[in-house]
Write a structure and sequence with these properties.
The chain is α/β, with parallel strands linked by helices. It has two domains: about 150 residues, HAD superfamily/HAD-like (Rossmann fold, 3-Layer(aba) Sandwich), CATH 3.40.50.1000; about 120 residues, Hypothetical Protein, Haloacid Dehalogenase-like Hydrolase, Chain: A, domain 2 (2-Layer Sandwich). It is about 30% helix and about 20% strand. It has ten helices and 14 strands. The strands form two sheets. It has an eight-stranded mixed β-sheet. A six-stranded mixed β-sheet has the order 8-7-6-9-11-10. β6 and β7 form a beta hairpin. Keywords: Hydrolase. Pfam families: Hydrolase_3.
C-alpha cells in the first residue's frame, strides 16, 4: 500500500452542519494515519475555529482560511494576512454601511458590536438550508462557541472578514470597493447568499496544498481531496483524486472523480475503504 496525502474539508465533509463528527470518520482517519498516510484538514475556517474535538481525532496539520494558512505538525509552513491598511479600510467601510461582521484570525474570531443580535436569524437560516432539524438549531454562540465580543476591531492578524449581507448588492459593492482583495459569498448561491467575505487575494486551497506538498516533500500524484462545495473544486482539480460527499452541492459532485455517501451516512469511512486507505 502506497502512502497518500489526504485533505479533508471540514463543514459538510468531516462534520455535518450541526458540528457533529461521525464516529466512523474518526475511526477512518486514525486507521489511515496508522497505515502511514498523512491527513490534513483543508477548510475555510481559521485556526481559531478548529476546536479541540477536531484536533483530538489526530491530524498531521491543517490548511485554513481557504488557503491563507498552512500548518504541519504544529509548525507554520505558510501564512498570509490582510495588511493593516486593507483591514482598517474594510472595517471602516462595513461600519459605515452598518453591516455586521467578524474578523477571522488564528488568534480568534472577533465580532462587530451587533453581530450576535443581527446574526442570530441569519445563522439559523444557514443551518436550516443545510438540513438541520428545527429542534437542533443553535444561535451565534452555539455555532461560534469561542467568538470574542467587544475587542478592538483594528488588527494586524486578519486572514478574512465575513459580513452579513442585507442584500446581494452589498456583496457587489464590496467587490467593487476592494478590487485588490478576494471577494466571495457563502450560505447560499448567488442572490440568496447570507454572507459575503473579503480575504487575501491569489490564494486558494490548491495553492496551499502545493505549498504544503513542497514543505513535506510529498508528490501531487499521491493526493486525495474530500469536499462538498464549490470552494473545494480547486483542490479537486489540483489533487490526483477528488471525492465529493453525497450530501454536497451539485457543482462539487460534477467536479469530483468519485461521489461517496453523505456525511451522516459514513461517507468518509466508505470512501477511505473504496480507495484502500483503510481496510474493513
Amino acid at each position: 500500500m502506497g502512502h497518500n496525502v489526504i485533505f479533508l474539508d471540514v463543514d459538510g465533509t468531516l462534520t455535518d452542519y450541526e458540528n457533529h463528527i461521525p464516529a466512523s470518520a474518526v475511526h477512518a482517519i486514525r486507521q489511515a494515519r496508522a497505515n502511514g498516510h498523512l491527513v490534513y484538514i483543508c477548510t475555510g475556517r481559521s485556526k481559531a475555529e478548529v476546536y479541540e474535538e477536531i484536533w483530538a481525532i489526530g491530524l498531521d496539520g491543517m490548511i485554513g482560511g481557504n488557503g491563507c494558512y498552512v500548518e504541519h505538525h504544529g509548525k507554520v509552513v505558510f501564512e498570509q494576512t490582510l495588511s493593516e491598511q486593507q483591514e482598517r479600510a474594510v472595517v471602516d467601510w462595513l461600519q459605515e454601511r452598518r453591516l455586521e461582521f467578524y474578523l477571522e484570525c488564528n488568534s480568534g474570531l472577533y465580532a462587530s458590536a451587533h453581530f450576535e443580535e443581527r446574526g442570530e436569524p441569519t445563522i439559523r437560516l444557514y443551518q436550516q438550508r443545510k438540513g438541520t432539524a428545527a429542534d437542533a438549531l443553535g444561535g451565534v454562540r452555539r455555532v461560534f462557541p469561542e467568538m470574542i465580543f467587544g475587542a478592538d476591531l483594528y488588527r494586524s492578524d486578519v486572514n478574512k472578514i465575513s459580513f452579513i449581507l442585507e442584500s446581494y448588492q452589498d456583496f457587489l459593492d464590496a467587490q467593487a470597493a476592494f478590487p485588490d482583495l478576494k471577494a466571495g459569498t457563502w450560505g447560499g448561491k448567488g442572490e440568496i447568499a447570507l454572507f459575503g467575505d473579503l480575504g487575501v487575494p491569489a490564494v486558494d486551497k490548491a495553492v496551499a496544498i502545493d505549498r504544503l506538498l513542497e514543505a513535506v516533500h510529498a508528490k501531487r500524484e499521491d493526493t486525495i481531496a474530500f469536499g462538498d462545495a464549490k470552494v473545494d473544486i480547486p483542490m479537486f482539480e489540483y489533487c490526483a483524486i477528488g471525492v465529493a460527499m453525497g450530501s454536497g452541492g451539485e457543482e462539487a459532485k460534477a467536479a469530483a472523480d468519485y461521489v461517496t455517501d453523505a456525511v451522516d451516512q459514513d461517507g468518509l469511512y466508505h470512501a477511505f475503504r473504496h480507495f484502500h486507505l483503510i481496510e474493513a
